[in-house]
Amino acid sequence: MTTTDFSRDPANFCYRHPDRMSFALCQRCQRTICPECQTQAAVGVICPECLRDQQRSRTPAQKRAQRRWGRGGAVAARAGAAPVTNWIVGVTAAMFLLDQLLRLMGIQIQPWLAFWAPRLYPQLGVFEPWRVVTWLVVHSTFIHVGLNLLSVWMIGRLLEPMLGRWRYLALYLISGLGGAAAAALLAFGTPVVGASAALFGLLGALVVIGRHLGGNVTGILIILGINLVAGFLFGGISWQAHVGGLVAGTAVGFVFATTRRADQTRRQLVLLGAVVVALIGLLVLAGALYL
After folding, report:
1. What is the value of pTM for the model shown?
2. Cβ(249)–Cβ(204) under 8 Å?
């Protein structure tokens, strides 16, 4: 499907706001809804009409429970809030502050969480697989963590309501895995920390999804290009992780953009699994090359 066909397809627009494009579908009626029309349910989001139908069909016991315990279930949170993004920012900031506090007591947790390829291979006597994820929540300086988290917060509040919580979380983590794979292949002995790889993955996915929605992504491309060049020009920056995160995030964004219909869920999961397997394969290849 071309970009023009995509932008002309009514199924890619909110049924209540035909001028707003979105990837989110109501979990009950499967119609496309924009962030303003989404209400978070137990799984996914639902549209205002389905929410009203659900509220009208409540049993007397459910109504009493809601009066007693307050708002719950499908009416717990209005969409557009990006809870996963907020959790990522909060956990990462808390981890940085904890690291700084422990340093005052002579304890360092960063060396245990940073990505360092030699720690992934049992043949070296150590196997610490958590490093392919935990390196995203540790940072070196206040400027490092501040800039990364500000960027993640800004982009996440745009992407998460569009993709949904679980797809957005998958994008973030797979982008981090891509950064780890590239760092292992291109800088095997170099420890790496920071959420930059995941951030580049978010930008890559945003470019792909924006293009499929028929939007103008020139500004995003300029920001992406500047940050990529900075990684090559300035020391202390892992351009390898940036490139890996960008490639992985772009691939995931393409999967989401081409499998957004409700009947394509299985295909989407298979393709995401294929991306993850490919990245793990690159980690295995790095071990074969350097060990």
Report:
1. 0.76
2. yes
